Write the C-alpha cells for this entry.
Amino acid sequence: MKEHQFSRRKFLTSMASLSAASVLLPFHTLAASDMHKVKITDVKTMVLQGPTTPYMRGRTHILVKVETDAGIYGIAEAYGSPGLGIVEAIHGVKAILIGKDPLQIDRLYTGYRYTDDSAHAQQRAMSGIEMALWDLAGKILKVPTHTLLGGKFRDKVRMYDHHTPRDYSDKISCRDWAAAAKEQPNGITIHKLGVPIIGEKDDFGFDPSNRVLSSKAMRKLIEGYENIRDAIGWDHDLLIGCHWQFDLRTSIELARNLEQIKPLWLEDPMPVPYSESWRRLVDASPVPICTGENWSRRSDSLPFIKNAATDIIHPDLRNSGGFLENKRMADLADLYSLPVANHNTGGIVNGIASVNWAASIRDYLFCETVFFDGGWMDDVVVHDKPLCENGYVAVSEKPGLGIELDPDVVKPNLVEGEKWWG
C-alpha cells in the first residue's frame, strides 16, 4: 500500500511538473531554435488623421511598428492627440532598442528607465512600443498575445460608446437619440454621457472657472440625465463621464442625484491625483465611482486601490505602460475585489489591442470605443465581417494581436506629410 501511495504521489508530482513546464514550452522551444536570435532592426511610426466628429475633434492616432531581422514585425498604437512629443519620443529611444531581443519585453520597457517620471510623452511612447512588442512576440511564437499573458477568460469583450443626444434638455432630441442608439448596427447597449455645458454664470449661477455647481445648474443637469433615461429605458446602460470638473461636495451631490437613473458608474468627477477626498466620495456615493485613465503606472493606482477610493479601475493602455504594467495593475485590483474596465479613445488598432488584453483579465467589465461602428476607421484593419456585433468584439485567435493593416485605407487618411511607415 505504501509503495502504491508513493508511486501515486510521484506520478501526480511528475504530472504537475509537466503541466508547469508545458506553459513555458513555447519559450523553451524558441530558445532552442534559430528564432531566439531575432533582433530588433527598426522602430517606425505613421500618424493617422482621425474623423472630424464633434467628440473626436480631428484627433490623430500614432501607429507604431517594431521590425526585426527575421522579417517579422509587431504593430500597435501609441497615444495620439493630445500627444505632443510622442512621435519624437518613440524615435528618441529607437537607437537603444535596435539590436535587442524583442522577447525581453519587461526589460526593454523598464530596465533602461525610459518610463520614469521625467517625461509623460516618453511613457506614452513606450506604452505603444511595449504593445507592439507583445504583438511581435505572439507572431514569433505563433500564438495569440492573450495566450502569452496567461490565457483568456472570455471569447468576446463588451464595448461602450459615446453615442449621446444633441440636447439633453430637449425630450424630443433624447427620444430621437434613443431610437438611433437602438438601431446601431454594432448593437452596443452601454453609452457614456458627458457633462454638457449647462449655461453661463448669469443663467444658472454656474462659474466655469471653479469646481462648484449651483443648485439650479445641478437640477438642470440631472433633468437632462432623467430625460435620457426615460428615452432609452432600462435595456440600455448609462455611464456618466466627467473630466475632473468638480470639487468633493459637488461630486457627492452629483452622485446622490444620479442614484435614480442608476448609471453603472460616475467617472472622474474630481481632479486626477489621489487624496482622501476620493475615499470620502466613494463612502458617500450610492453609485459606483470609476477613475484611472490618466494613471501612468501601477504606483498611481495603488493609493486608490488600497484605500478603497474607487470602485472600478479604468486605465488606458496607451497611458499606463501597455499590456504588462496594466495586467499587474489589474492583478493588484483583484486582491481588493475591484473590477477593471478600459478607457480607450484611440483608433481601431488600440481598440483591438485592448480587447486582446481584456481577454486575459479575470474580473473585467467592458471597454470604451469611439469606433467599431462600421465607419472607415474599422477598415484600417483587414476584416471579413463586422468587428463589433451585438455590442461585443470577438477575441482574435490569430498570432499576436491578429491585426493586418489595409494600406488602401490607411494611406489616404494619413496626416499631411506622413508616408506609409515613414
Summary: The chain has two domains: 35-143, 148-405.
